[in-house]
Q: What sequence folds into this?
């Protein structure tokens, strides 16, 4: 493995850790803020960075959920319900270590499942066509409405709003121009980073609980006890990994569906055996977090093999890799699949170390005065916008787009803006795919 990949893995692990520690920041915001600085002529570099960010944020997000009862991601809700009571009962070190090991095993099982199913998946690629692509995009939009915390009417309106923003520009594939108003800057559409910063990152940070005063207590490392507990939960881990692997393939739901489904199945089983006495069940916690990490592997597969992003962060990644002069295609993935699997394994191993033996070191970040961290976050928001605007000779345009979207983000801070963001990211691709499908059927 070349040195450049090691650098990207370390950078992705550290920034993914940061994303997991800051509730409301998450993988999407991390890719928007930092991803642009890791784009090179080789798409494999940014892919390696993304993989490690996803892995680290999942592991560290579990620590935050268990220790503080704060869900950094929607997939962390089961960890809050079952992990935080364990922490308050003085069993936080057991919960942290056991879930970290379970998550690592879930990642390994996901790779094994991929190896077993890969030949079948390759055959399914032959069936891939425009109709299926349109169906997947339609399903993704529908699921975004269903899983949003908003009233469905609000989500539909947000989808329309996001689609309007996403359709701005000239669509050469269909020969149509939308909402450019004759402005040269709008011909290529609205830039992704300023829009996501304004409409997604800002409201998520405004809604986060990071401003709360948090008491930090050190964890003890209990490897023998953690391993003994895990050994008794191997069937749970295996079942949760399988559930997580297939759930991760569902557009927009991915890790959220994986952790929730595995959690409820395990809780139902515990109740049938009269072993569930209320929140604080370690088996339910392990099931949810194991499925979560298994899904963090499988959610990459539609993008890698079909070129279809199924999460908001993957759309940001897709925007980066498609801007590479080398190109992003199936041959590139097939020829470097072993490299990406090695990156994934290393990322999980480093994340395991961070989320278990080194948990106390990274939790010490919460001792930093909140004002300093808030200033740093503002810096993270502004820097990529200025950098991209300056690099593309459109600095004023980028700032104007950010201010425009930031105003809407501030207004919409109490709602879930993900429907707007998702429709913004898929609108152009969906329109062109839908147009191709219509043309093909008419011919």
A:
């Amino acid at each position: 493995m070349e040195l450049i990949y090691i650098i990207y893995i370390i950078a992705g692990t550290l920034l993914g850790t940061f994303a997991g520690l800051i509730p409301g920041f998450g993988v999407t915001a991390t890719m928007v803020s930092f991803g642009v600085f890791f784009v090179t002529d080789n798409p494999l570099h940014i892919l390696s960075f993304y993989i490690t960010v996803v892995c680290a944020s999942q592991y560290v997000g579990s620590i935050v959920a268990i220790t503080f009862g704060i869900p950094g991601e929607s997939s962390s809700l089961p960890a809050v319900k079952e992990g935080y009571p364990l922490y308050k009962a003085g069993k936080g070190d057991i919960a942290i270590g056991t879930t970290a090991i379970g998550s690592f095993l879930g990642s390994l099982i996901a790779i094994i499942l991929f190896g077993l199913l890969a030949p079948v998946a390759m055959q399914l690629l032959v069936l891939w066509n425009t109709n299926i692509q349109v169906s997947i995009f339609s399903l993704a939009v529908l699921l975004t409405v269903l899983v949003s915390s908003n009233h469905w009417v609000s989500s539909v309106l947000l989808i329309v709003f996001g689609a309007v923003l996403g359709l701005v520009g000239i669509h050469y594939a269909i020969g149509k121009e939308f909402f450019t108003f004759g402005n040269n800057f709008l011909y290529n559409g609205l830039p992704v980073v300023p829009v996501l910063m304004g409409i997604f990152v800002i409201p998520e940070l405004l809604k986060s609980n990071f401003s709360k005063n948090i008491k930090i207590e050190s964890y003890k490392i209990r490897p023998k006890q953690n391993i003994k507990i895990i050994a008794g939960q191997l069937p749970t881990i295996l079942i949760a990994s399988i559930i997580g692997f297939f759930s991760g393939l569902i557009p927009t739901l991915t890790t959220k569906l994986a952790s929730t489904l595995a959690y409820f199945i395990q809780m139902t089983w515990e109740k049938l055996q009269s072993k569930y006495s209320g929140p604080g069940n370690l088996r339910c916690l392990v099931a949810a977090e194991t499925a979560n990490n298994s899904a963090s592997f499988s959610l990459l597969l539609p993008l890698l093999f079909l070129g279809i992003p199924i999460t908001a962060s993957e759309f940001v990644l897709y925007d980066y890799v498609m801007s590479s002069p080398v190109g992003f295609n199936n041959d590139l993935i097939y020829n470097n699949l072993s490299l990406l699997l090695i990156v994934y394994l290393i990322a999980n191993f480093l994340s395991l170390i961070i989320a278990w033996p080194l948990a106390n070191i990274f939790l010490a970040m919460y001792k930093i005065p909140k004002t300093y961290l808030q200033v740093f976050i503002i810096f993270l928001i502004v820097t990529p916008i200025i950098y991209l605007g300056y690099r593309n000779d459109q600095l004023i345009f980028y700032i104007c787009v950010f201010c425009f979207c930031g105003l809407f983000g501030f207004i919409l801070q109490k709602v879930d803006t993900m429907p707007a963001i998702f429709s913004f990211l898929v609108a152009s691709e969906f329109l062109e795919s839908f147009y191709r499908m219509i043309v093909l059927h008419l011919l």
Observations:
- Residues 3-442 form one domain.
- The chain has one domain: 3-442.
- The radius of gyration is 21 Å.
- The CA atoms of residues 24 and 208 lie 5 Å apart.
